[in-house]
Write a structure and sequence with these properties.
Blueprint (H helix, E strand, L loop, with lengths): L4 E5 L2 E9 L5 E5 L21 E5 L16 H15 L2 E6 L1 H12 L4 E7 L29 H7 L6 H14 L6 E3 L6 H7 L4 E3 L2 H10 L2
Helix pairs in contact: 1-2, 2-4, 4-5
Length: 218
């Protein structure tokens, strides 16, 4: 994999990896909690016609670490917004934690996000709908480089009220101009995702069907 493009979000350096060239709109991959960008696109993505990029979230992969933690899904939404501004417009595919971030940025930037695909992966449920007690999780030393342990601890317990998530789904449906701005491919059903699944403009399908749909939208 070639060296990443380095983007700036506040005081953090973000690594945006180009996994493959292509013609047309970009597909931006958002990884799960504790993960990093893949070296190459998965086989399931081979039919996407445009270039494929993957973003290392703050505290993950080749992106830098903030001093003292302070991780929230909204901070990572800012990471995704920074990448989206660099790409101009993109279709998003998020795994786990990345799926939740994809939903948030689809509602916050409905004209820039041309479809968001929500998939299973680490960190999908977060901390549920209510706050809990703080917990420090030791880092996985097998990862190179390892994710920030503060990211693992804080984002695993990130509060995700269903009514908060549905507000972003409704904004995407109202302002994106797409009849189906969000597609769920996940099997797991966290409380926030069950609520989003019931919203207009949100449907369930296979990953291949979702990508074929969004490859055709303007």
């Amino acid at each position: 994999m070639s060296p990443p493009t380095l983007l700036t979000h506040g005081k953090v350096r973000l690594a945006l990896h180009k996994l493959r060239s292509g013609s047309g709109r970009a597909l931006l991959l958002l990884h799960g909690l504790g993960e990093r960008s893949p070296v190459e696109p998965a086989e399931a993505l081979k039919l996407w016609p445009g270039p494929i990029f993957s973003l290392d979230f703050t505290g993950h992969g080749e992106s830098s670490l903030p001093a003292g933690g302070g991780y929230t899904a909204e901070v990572l939404m800012g990471d995704a917004d920074t990448a989206l501004a660099h790409l101009d417009r993109a279709t998003l595919m998020g795994r786990g934690l990345g799926a939740y971030v994809a939903l948030l940025i689809a509602g916050a930037r409905p004209q820039g996000v041309r479809g968001a695909v929500l998939c299973d992966g680490p960190g999908l449920a977060g901390g549920g709908a209510r706050p809990g007690s703080p917990q420090i999780v030791p880092p996985d030393r097998s990862a190179v480089p390892p994710p920030d342990p503060f990211a693992l601890a804080e984002l695993a317990r990130d509060v995700r009220p269903p009514e908060y998530a549905t507000a972003f789904a409704r904004q995407a449906a109202a302002l994106s101009g797409l009849p189906r701005p969000i597609t769920i491919c996940a099997v797991e059903r966290a409380a926030w995702l069950r609520a989003v699944a019931a919203e207009p403009g949100v449907e369930e399908s296979t990953l291949g069907e979702a990508l074929a749909l969004y490859a055709r939208v303007p």
